[in-house]
Design brief:
Length: 815
């Protein structure tokens, strides 16, 4: 069993360090020839050099601290849920950690930004068990089908919660501000104290019950989140009122607790709305689809049906102004279709019988009948939505650092709060001396407070000021908005890593045919010593029986000039050389220069033109009539209209451009010179392309490869960033990191601009999240921040991060 590969699904990996550790351990084993562990796909690809049982391999994986399931035995269900009740990314990490420990769970990914959970389980694990476990943690799993209604209900519930909380809290806050800022007591202090205790209780413990419940669950499971900090902070604040009620000399912070909880509700509501906006791209894509279709029955009568009722093979009539219901092919009529929702290109596309059409695009002019080819999850729109959903849950490498920090953040905050309490209890004079410096500036500093009150004031502020939420939101919100922007611009970014790598690109490599050029040979020039129409008629009439792409180019040229074909006889095709046939009793020969030389036909009258065509990189075809050469045709794969501008734009942003092609050197050089390519490699076999990409990488270059995603697949996979040019409906190209729906190279420029803009937002978000905590925490520790102001600042930090990400939607990709 030498060099046999086995694949295992790995559970328990939390970062790329885990995959590196496991890969290292596997490669040390005697029976392993080579091991490759991928963190993103959670798979281990192991090439064995001897017979080994699955049990031995799994034991090795388990000894390293993880678990593995052989691919062939992995009958898993992929379950998708919406998650209600999460207030920050720590909540998502908490759910992930606890579900991953459950028997039967293969892997789990919880995305706070779009409130989704994707859980892969074995056949035995019931969804109800997962829901029960998540409920114990203080959250709720909602079936994906219920998502929209539940999301609206949750948002409405949050709005009601904050409204009721502020109806109670606002009068108490106004009363407290009069006392704190002006020393004015609106009501009797003793009576006011009892009011505070009575009315803050429902805000903290009834309206705020989900937070308190989450806090209790966090301590029970020893998995802390943002709610834990708010819960402990508000309970500590309220407890001061109870202690004062019991006779202890301590300041009452019960109103501060209610303010913290109420401000937290505002923050949660605004984050919910903002992250909802960040994930709107998928909803917008869903809304693009047609809702109904005009189905043609067998007797050609029409009935209106829902799009979900259509099946493959149905015939549908689409009138001007209507949306194409689903993907299909035109079987009757001609029209112009606005495909901007699919390709991002604003110019409508002419369509005729036999052309493919994409669901959700808009029929502009003619009435057409289409035959349905794809429905449901197989349609273009469904594939885009699936790609975007998967991509939005991916991560960029820089996020690994942020995730690691976030995972330790809440425990560190608790430790910091405890140290703050101890500092103020043990060294109160030192703390008070700092407060004296700012007592004239900050109205909430009260030097008459007891040392215990000062200690609790600083501790509560420390608990609520430190915010892992902004840090956790920094990357996923920017990814979600950036990928949503891409989806509506015909750019499908399949994974987050491509976004970070795009920033480091130094070289961009292009396949020629179908990427820089149209991929369809066309007659670009011809010369004859007889009548031009007769020359084209004779040549095309002979070629019409050939299936060669060059023959089709000549036929198209004749058809474009409305030249009728003539009946041919005695047709004989000589493979790779040319054609001999009789046309109206005339001997016509069409073929290459080599074929004419072989037949010893004279073409001296056309040598100058032949040399010019060859210099331009054209393929040369000669035509002879009765042994006399009557003309020469130059055929070329024409350059796409925007290739020159796209290459220029890429060079202006500092990228070296390289072209790969199987064409001969002259043709390749001619194309490269026209579009302005820096370096050309010609006469390549498909396997040569991946070698050139590797060679460029060995030179220290970060390489993007642009190709059609079929014969270029190995090179696309090898490149640091693979960019596949789509063909309208053919978008599911697994080898690429980025797929462009349109065939336009301007899309490549836009994709790189979008990737770089998205990564820039991620860096900005992370900077401000770190900066906020670095500045805010020391201020809170020293008692210089009021806990309520600390909570406002915490919420503002998260909202700022989301708002900064949302600005990506307005990025101009044209420059």
């Amino acid at each position: 069993m030498q060099n046999k590969e086995k694949i295992y699904n790995i559970t328990g990996m939390s970062c790329t360090s885990c995959s590196a550790n496991l890969e290292k351990a596997l490669n040390k084993a005697d029976f392993v020839n080579k091991a490759n562990v991928q963190f993103t796909s959670k798979k281990a690809f192991i090439t064995l050099n001897q017979e080994v049982s699955d049990e031995q391999i799994i034991k090795l994986i388990q000894d390293t601290g993880y678990d593995g399931i052989p691919q062939k035995e992995n009958h898993s269900n992929s379950l998708k849920f919406q998650v209600a009740g999460m207030s920050c990314t720590s909540c998502a990490a908490n759910i992930e950690k606890n579900l991953a420990k459950m028997a039967g769970v293969i892997n789990v990914k919880v995305n706070f930004t779009d409130k989704s959970a994707i859980i892969n389980t074995n056949d035995q694990l019931e969804p109800a068990i997962l829901k029960r476990k998540v409920k114990e943690l203080g959250y709720q799993l909602i079936d994906a089908a219920e998502k929209e209604d539940k999301t609206k209900d949750f948002l409405k519930q949050e709005k009601n919660r904050l409204s009721i909380a502020w109806v109670i809290t606002l009068p108490l806050t106004i009363k407290m501000l009069f006392e704190m800022l002006g020393g004015i007591f609106l009501i009797n202090p003793t009576f006011a104290f009892y009011l505070d205790i009575i009315f803050t209780f429902p805000v903290i413990f009834i309206i705020g019950f989900p937070v308190i419940k989450s806090t209790w669950g966090a301590f029970k499971n020893f998995s802390f989140n943002m709610d834990s900090l708010i819960g402990v902070g508000t309970i500590a604040a309220y407890s001061t009122g109870i202690l004062r009620l019991l006779g202890m000399e301590i300041e009452n912070f019960a109103v501060v607790g209610a303010m913290i909880m109420s401000i937290n509700f505002i923050g949660n509501y605004l984050k919910e709305k903002a992250t909802g906006r960040a994930s709107q791209a998928i909803q917008q894509l869903l809304e693009l689809g047609a809702k109904s279709a005009n189905l043609l029955k067998e007797d050609n009568t029409e009935i209106k049906v829902g799009v979900d009722e259509l099946i493959v093979g149905d015939r549908v009539r689409v009138r001007p102004g209507e949306k194409i219901p689903v993907d299909g092919i035109i079987i009757e009529g001609e029209t112009t279709i606005d495909e901007s929702i699919a390709t991002g290109e604003s110019i409508p596309v002419d369509k005729k019988t036999g052309d493919s059409v994409i669901g959700a695009t808009i029929n502009q002019q003619g009435s057409i009948i289409i035959k349905i080819e794809k429905t449901g999850k197989n349609t273009f729109l469904a594939q885009i939505i699936k790609m975007v959903e998967e991509a939005q849950g991916s991560k960029v490498p820089i996020q690994a650092f942020a995730d690691k920090v976030t995972s330790y953040f809440v425990p560190i905050v608790f430790i910091t709060a405890l140290l703050t309490l101890l500092f103020w209890l043990l060294f109160p004079e030192a703390g008070k001396s700092v407060l004296q410096l700012f007592s004239q500036t900050l109205p909430w500093i009260n030097l008459e407070r007891s040392y215990l009150s000062m200690a609790l004031f600083a501790t509560i502020a420390t608990l609520v000021i430190a915010c892992p939420c902004a840090l956790g939101l920094a990357t996923p919100t920017a990814l979600m908005v950036g990928m949503g922007k891409g989806a509506t611009s015909g750019i499908l970014i399949r994974n987050g890593e491509a976004i970070q790598t795009s920033r480091q690109l130094s070289t961009i490599v292009f396949d020629k045919t179908g990427t820089i050029t149209m991929g369809k040979p066309e007659v670009v020039a011809f010369q004859t010593n007889i009548d031009e129409k007769l020359f084209l008629q004779l040549t095309a009439s002979v070629e019409k029986l050939s299936e060669h792409p060059l023959a089709r180019a000549i036929i198209k040229k004749a058809e474009d000039q409305n030249i009728a074909m003539i009946q041919t006889n005695q047709f004989q095709a000589i493979s790779g050389k040319g054609i001999i046939a009789k046309v109206e009793n005339e001997d016509i020969l069409v073929g290459s220069i080599h074929f004419f030389q072989q037949k010893k036909l004279n073409y001296e009258n056309f040598t100058t033109q032949i040399a010019e065509y060859q210099k331009s990189g054209y393929t040369v075809i000669l035509t002879a009539k009765n042994q006399q050469t009557i003309g020469v045709i130059g055929i070329a794969d024409t350059i796409k209209t925007d290739s020159i501008q796209a290459i220029k734009d890429l060079q202006q942003i500092g990228l070296e451009t390289v072209m790969l092609t199987g064409d001969h050197e002259k043709a390749a050089t001619a194309i490269a010179n026209k579009v302005g390519i820096d370096q050309v490699f010609s006469q390549l076999l498909p396997e040569d392309k991946i070698k050139i990409v590797r060679d460029l990488q060995k030179q220290g270059k970060t390489v993007a490869m642009v190709g059609d995603g079929i014969n270029d697949a190995p090179a696309l996979k090898q490149a640091n960033v693979g960019i596949a040019i789509g063909t309208g409906t053919d978008i599911a190209i697994e080898s690429a990191d980025i797929t462009l729906v349109s065939g336009s190279l301007i899309g490549v420029v836009k994709a790189i601009r979008l990737s770089r803009a998205t990564f820039q937002k991620i860096k900005q978000n992370l900077f401000w999240a770190f900066f906020y905590n670095i500045i805010a925490v020391p201020l809170a520790v020293m008692g210089l921040l009021h806990p309520a102001i600390a909570e406002i600042a915490m919420a503002a930090s998260s909202i700022n991060v989301v708002g900064n990400s949302l600005r990506l939607a307005r990025v101009n990709l044209e420059k």
